[in-house]
Write a structure and sequence with these properties.
Its main location: membrane. The protein is mainly α and 344 residues long. It is built from 13 helices and three strands; from the N terminus they run βββααααααααααααα. The chain has a single domain, classed as Orthogonal Bundle (ABC transporter involved in vitamin B12 uptake, BtuC). Strands 1-2-3 form a three-stranded antiparallel sheet. The chain starts with a strand and ends with a helix.
Length: 344
């Protein structure tokens, strides 16, 4: 490792990477914050548990409270971190593709499409976990294809994609309401409750497959990160360095939809994390563009914080985390729109 001005050069064998100091500081701070939030969430269950008891439970000691911490609270904490990182990364992908801070899966209809696919799996295909995941991913991909095809007619641009995505989102929301109204009462109640987006009741059985899918998608995204950074400099620069921009966009959309749909299948549509995390991460890390790592870390912190608030706000009743993220995201969206109007 060597220093060059405001950056550090990390070397190991033939591998080398240039990392800005402020990015390392931001990463360290966010990781410490995540650990603090995670420990607080583990301590807070039916009642307050001391950190010493939490560490004892994590070390494998037996006992009623210890089992609850390991089997119920720990999966929920990890789900908040992993799902938040996945949503933040998906938001960064779509904001890079559209080159617009409003280009996020929940704004341009991909969340609604994933929810449509999940509703079809619940109401028609009996809603097994595998079918729910497949339905969510397929619904998100169909929504993305629809938005992209409609945007191609007048020449694809970030603003056009977003405007068409908002329209598709409205139509899919109406379709989702119709599906719920036509479903049997028990199914409709379950679907409406699940649509709020919640981490309540998640155990290891519910998160194992989503964790594996998200890990594969994020690993695939890491391999495309250099090309994504080149594309962020402009189409001409990207093409000049050998990046096939159209193929790259398709790959990024598939990865982004996969991350969003996997979270939707496991926890329901959790909105606004994908919208806010990339921009907040960019400002906190002070990066010139929308970085994947800042967006992922910020998304994890946002969702973990929102879930902790959801548990504490009306204790002992635990709110769906989507209620909290909607409230926070609404305030953020108003601020973002007012900022865009002033700058325009």
């Amino acid at each position: 490792m060597s220093a060059t001005g405001t950056a550090l050069v990390l070397r190991r064998g033939r591998f080398s990477a240039l990392v800005e100091r402020r990015t390392l500081v931001f990463t360290a701070v966010m990781l410490v914050l995540l650990l603090a939030l995670g420990l607080t969430a583990l301590c807070y269950g039916d009642g307050w548990t001391s950190p010493a008891r939490v560490f004892a439970a994590l070390s494998g000691q037996r006992g009623g409270p210890n089992v609850m911490i390991r089997e119920w609270q720990l999966p929920r904490v990890l789900a908040a971190v992993v799902f938040g990182a996945a949503l933040g990364t998906a938001g960064a992908v779509f904001q890079n593709v559209t080159r617009n801070p409003l280009g996020s899966p929940d704004v341009i209809g991909l969340d609604a499409g994933a929810y449509t696919g999940a509703l079809v799996a619940i109401t028609v295909l009996s809603g097994t976990p595998a079918r729910l995941t497949a339905g969510s991913v397929l619904g998100g991909l169909v929504a993305a294809a629809l938005v992209y095809l409609l945007a191609m007619r007048g020449g694809v641009s970030g603003l056009r994609l977003i405007v068409i995505g908002i329209a598709v989102n409205a139509m899919l929301t109406a379709v989702n309401s119709w599906i719920v109204l036509r479903a049997e009462l028990e199914v409709a109640i379950a679907a409406v409750g699940w649509s709020a987006g919640s981490l309540n009741g998640l155990g290891w059985e519910q998160v194992r497959i989503p964790f594996c899918v998200i890990a594969v998608l994020l690993a695939a995204l890491v391999t495309r990160a250099p090309a994504l950074h080149q594309a962020a400099l402009g189409t001409e620069v990207a093409v000049g360095t050998g990046v096939r921009t159209e193929s790259l966009q398709v790959q990024l959309v598939v990865i982004g939809v996969g991350c969003t749909a996997t979270v939707t299948a496991a926890a329901g549509p959790i909105v606004f994390v994908a919208l806010a995390a990339p921009q907040i991460g960019r400002r906190l890390a002070r990066t010139s563009g929308i970085g994947l790592l800042p967006a992922a870390l910020t998304g994890a912190v946002l969702l973990q914080s929102a879930d902790l608030i959801a548990q504490l706000l009306l204790s002992p009743v635990s709110l769906p985390v989507g209620v909290v993220t909607t409230a926070i995201g609404g305030c953020y969206l108003i601020w973002l729109l007012s900022k865009e109007v002033r700058s325009g």
